[in-house]
């Protein structure tokens, strides 16, 4: 091999995503920094829009379908991006299930609208896996700028923050960066890290509470409802309305849901033992689980 060939191969390895062939994270960073330095000059656009796309519930899809099928799903998305969005700007894959579109823009709002329409077109093309079609659903974060002094790293951070906020909404969702999103993204990341630590320590801080259910008008107990609660090491109690969406987004909801089911079953056994080996014949327990738990 000549040194020229080796250098060419090395450049390709560093600048091309090995699975999809799209631009790698490093290539995206170099491209964005280069384009930022030319904003407003000559034929360059007046601004730049960095768009980050995340496949919603990808971690759960990985658990349900396996890594091989999900790799094919990522390839499917890459091919759809090349078909529909290659003319818009640079296409890249910057992490497991996160893709980017980098577009120079004469009109920021029009560019965001155009990319949003392209994303919806891609979502209308499910992946025909051997286990059945997999619907595509993206969360999208936009980071626009008119400022040539902005860095690529800053734009990626802004797009990721927008993505985190968009994930709090069900279904199709997109957000254009605002400064407040940074704090929201930091809070979400803090909860995800704390949750992973808790699960690693035997679900420390998680508890299951049991709420009685009564029949009307008699008032007789007919069951109990199992409710999960979480307290952080610093004593803060986190609402299920806040931590359950985080668990769903980061792929921990299935493990968490199974733990609740296990705890509820153990509680039934303990009550039965306390009552001499008998559970109330008409008494039932009820656990509310995520939709992902039943897949």
What does this structure look like?
The structure is a single chain. The protein has helices at about 5-15, 25-35, 60-65, 65-85, 110-125, 150-165, 180-200, 240-250, 255-275; strands at about 45-55, 90-95, 100-105, 125-130, 130-135, 140-145, 175, 205-215, 220-230, 235-240, 285. It is elongated, with a radius of gyration of 24 Å. By secondary structure, the protein is an alpha+beta fold. The protein is about 45% helix and about 25% strand. The strands form 3 sheets. Strands 2-3-1-6-7 form a 5-stranded mixed beta sheet, with helices on both faces. Strands 8, 9, 10 and 11 form a 4-stranded mixed beta sheet that branches. The chain has 9 helices and 11 strands. Helix 3 (about 60-65) packs across helix 4 and helix 6 (about 150-165) packs across helix 7. Strand 8 (about 205-215) and strand 9 (about 220-230) form a beta hairpin.
